[in-house]
From TrEMBL:
Location of the GST C-terminal domain: 87-208
Keywords: Transferase
Highest taxon of the lineage: Bacteria
Protein name: Glutathione S-transferase
Species in which this protein is naturally found: Teichococcus deserti
UniProt cross-references to Pfam families, sorted A to Z: GST_C_2, GST_N_2
């Protein structure tokens, strides 16, 4: 019997929700603790001993040590399951989209999201907001083209970890108050994802 997973991080964090959705797909029990803004602080010696980068999520491993970085945690949890193929090339096709999410796509949404959702004063009137929105749309259009090619899920015909991390990113894009271009393959994929209980609980839950 698999032990209950100790997960540190508030449920509104997009990166914590990656782990929660992954655990939902795997049927893994989770004991989540609220850490982060509004809850237990991350800028303390106690938390820095757990994660020197002072970010969530973090999970505690069976040996008592900790693992950080949301995509890494999801890979660790999904190892040996259908979410992360055992074949090296099939796995690499999943992971290349996970890495794209963590780099190019995350960089694209930062300015628009901070300005339009968080309403951070440092970003609201920042020059280049319109360019930032256009750049975010361009990245989502790239994902739309990939989904049009596969006709199903991000890395191919089967649901995988790539769909979890990018499904949350797509939810953030969709919920940000701005005009959205028509991306039909992306919209069809989102309709497939919402059929999954993990998506409904942790992505289509009213939180961008």
């Amino acid at each position: 019997m698999t032990a209950t997973l100790r997960l540190l991080g508030k449920a509104s964090s997009i990166n914590v929700r990656k782990v929660l959705w992954t655990c939902a797909e795997l049927g893994r029990d989770v004991a989540r603790e609220d850490w982060g803004s509004g809850f237990r602080p991350l800028d303390t010696a106690e938390f820095e001993a757990i994660n020197p980068h002072r970010l969530v999520p973090v999970i505690q491993l069976p040996d008592g040590s900790y693992l950080r970085e949301s995509n890494t945690i999801c890979r660790y949890l999904a190892a040996g399951s259908a979410l992360l193929p055992g074949d090296p090339l099939a796995r690499a096709r999943v992971e290349q989209w996970m890495d794209w999410q963590a780099t190019e796509l995350n960089a694209a949404w930062r300015l628009p999201f901070m300005a339009l959702v968080r309403r951070d004063p440092a970003f609201v009137d920042a020059p280049g907001l319109n360019d930032g929105i256009a750049g975010w749309h361009a990245q989502m259009a790239l994902l739309d083209r990939q989904l049009a090619q596969t006709g199903a899920y991000v890395a191919g015909p089967d649901f995988s970890l790539a769909d979890i991390v990018l499904g949350l990113s797509a939810n953030r894009w969709r919920m940000t108050p701005m005009p959205h271009p028509d991306l039909p393959a992306l919209a069809a994929w989102e309709a497939r994802l919402v059929q999954r209980p993990g998506h409904r609980a942790h992505a289509a839950n009213g939180i961008p």
